[in-house]
Design brief:
Two copies of one chain form a homodimer. With 408 residues, the first copy, chain A, is α/β, with parallel strands linked by helices. Chain A contains twelve helices and 18 strands.
């Protein structure tokens, strides 16, 4: 007998019939002798509907009131779930964030969980009932309602699992696991049976939007095993777990990509100490996040700086940089918002060299020019022209033979 | 400067534009120098929508979960109100039942308010902000969410007004006040400027559904003046106040009616002690509410019993009574569900005789037969054939010259 937390996303609870299907699943797992805690999102579309109402009322909706509004979505689904469970003869009790409580800081619309009191949930489980928790929401120390930001229900599920010392946290979604790459681009993409937290983090932050990144960080910190799986089939999904010895041989687990990129180059900058700060301080002060930075020395104490920003920030950053460039005496500013980033991820890179070289070879053999490179312990990213995105992903997936399993 | 509680019903907050209109009204009253507390209902239709979702999930939705579900309706409107107010430059802070808290008993879906802590509301008012309270909802001592039943937002408004020792509680609705009778039936119906709590209670319970009856009882107990008025015009509505000396002369304030009636007669019942209990105990045990009861003695220790029940309970009550009748040896059971009740209400009846006689004369002069009569201190009701309802209402309104003002 195990204690299992199961989280179902918006598409899994999109209407009354789907909620009933979710209830049947949960009851089936319970009947195998497990204690069940369920975390639910709002019905698909509901959060967007509420946001559009808010935007009709106020140009920049007040964050505290936004949270009062948005938290109703999950409140509806947990109540409906409990009714359906009782109709099927199983007692289920709903919990809102403030009823548990799930304490957060007071950063409205993007709050962080600080503490969860597990006592009330434990009492319900002890009675043989299903505990049903509203995802995405919490409460501050002064009783204000907060929400955790997009994908926050994943974080709720993991945090509740940790607080209860659960055996497993299952995230049910509309895909059946984590894939070696995007199946929409690459037909031979393979579902991964297991992946480490670190790899999952690199995959998630690079655009494989299956799990909310904070929830993976949370699970990693407390070594809570995650099972990402489909709410529409019974097939096992992908286990996200602590890295173990068997994973060390895996050079590449997956290929990811992001089109949300733009590149800016400042040419012939007079190279003196503090010049990088002079360029990047105004950008970060404006709230823009710079990803890769490359500096090339030129002759005559001049240097070129190239960096990437999210594409949505491109125009604003260009204007900012042009002002800065004239101030610091740079010769030219150029930009390009039709670039993409492709990356390979694998824990085995830590102990093996040569993976980067192989990646560049594969790209080169398909005529794809690499514009920028960045690497971390378990990831290598290349910036390329956007038009090559699909080709690059397929080439890397084929080249590392990921259709046959993780590359070793 | 006064402290005013304003409550707006579902039709007044039915969409974003209407909510903005409500906000403008509240701000206008605030700018006259008043401290403002606003109590809001759910958007019109929303509560019924949620109930239909619940009924899809469970045949008899679990009351605790029903309250979790239904309380979201008001949560949405208070958040939207506060956003719109801030967009117009006025600070407004929303409060859910559990945040104030509004403590209730644990009778889910029809809870009663036990206590309201006014401190947080007072703090907001002291800051010059508008306090915006979710109507209809409260919280139990153990943190469960409760709702107060249909029309519960009126009760919230009055209870909050009492807790804050407000100067006035204004109930904004889709009619512009309390009328001398139903304007849909009687074109000469007049809006009343003032009416006593007692009269309002008789009017409300008899079918003039402008105010929720519990809210009037609450206001009466604490002598909180109510102002019932339209949210779509600036015209003053009807003040519901403590009876004063000037009201004693008012014989008849209004004429009300109810079609929600059915009549059952048990004939030739052997008349012995305890016979009434033998008949009515099973009916009340089944949860049915009997209104009028008349007993007529016959020759030979036999008696006839006639009583009325809500029309919705008619068939079930008939079956019950037939079983009881055979047990106690009654000769016959007859019923009629095409009856109606017309009533005249006025505080002056306490000190004046002859009003009943005048009522019977008026009805008789229009050929309307009176089937049953019941009286209270400030009300006389007659049961008549349903087909005469409109005729009776108009005849009484004309007969007591209510188009010229309350009959004295």
């Amino acid at each position: 007998m195990a204690l299992i937390v199961q989280k179902f996303g918006g598409t899994s609870v999109a209407d009354c019939e789907r909620i009933k299907n979710v209830v049947r699943r949960v009851i089936a797992t319970k009947k195998k002798g497990n204690d069940m805690v369920v975390v639910l999102s709002a019905m698909a579309g509901q959060t967007n509907h509420l946001i559009s109402l808010a935007q009709e009322m106020q140009e920049f909706p007040h964050p505290r009131e936004m949270d009062v509004l948005l938290s109703t979505g999950e409140q509806v689904t947990i109540a409906l779930f409990c009714m359906a469970a009782r109709e099927m003869g199983v007692e289920a009790v709903s919990f809102l964030g403030h009823q548990i409580p799930i304490r957060t800081d007071d950063a409205h619309t993007r709050a962080r969980i600080e503490d969860i009191d597990a006592e009330k949930l434990k009492a319900v489980l002890k009675e043989g009932q299903i505990a049903v928790v509203a995802g995405f929401q919490g409460v501050t120390g002064t009783g204000d309602i907060t929400t955790l930001g997009r994908g926050g229900s994943d974080t709720t599920a993991v945090a509740v699992a940790v607080a209860l010392d659960a055996n497993l946290c299952e995230i049910f979604t509309d895909v059946d696991g984590v894939y070696s790459t995007d199946p929409n681009i690459c037909a031979t993409a393979r579902k991964l049976d297991r992946i480490s937290y670190e790899e999952m983090l690199e995959m998630a932050s690079l655009g494989a939007k299956v799990l909310e990144i904070r929830s993976v960080e949370f699970a990693m910190r407390y070594a809570m095993p995650l099972h990402v799986r489909s709410s529409f089939t019974d097939t096992p999904g992908t286990m996200v777990v602590k890295e173990d010895a068997t994973m060390e041989n895996i050079l590449v687990s997956g290929v990811t990509y992001s089109r949300d990129e733009a590149r800016i180059t400042i040419s012939k900058v007079p190279d003196r100490p503090g010049i990088a700060a002079a360029i990047f301080r105004p950008i970060s002060d404006a709230g823009m996040v710079v990803d890769m930075i490359i500096q090339n020395a030129r002759a005559g104490d001049l240097t070129d700086m190239t960096f990437t920003v999210p594409r949505a920030d491109y125009r604003q950053t260009m204007e900012l940089v042009k002002r800065v460039a004239s101030k610091i005496g740079a010769e030219n500013v150029a930009g390009d918002d039709s670039i993409a980033k492709v990356s390979i991820v694998g824990v085995g890179m830590r102990n093996h060299s040569g993976v980067a070289g192989r990646m560049f070879e594969i790209l080169a053999s398909h005529g794809i020019n690499v514009l920028m490179i960045s690497t971390s312990e378990i990831k290598i990213s290349c910036v390329i022209e956007e038009k090559f995105t699909e080709l690059a992903v397929r080439a890397l997936h084929d080249g590392f033979e990921l259709d046959k399993g993780p590359a070793t």
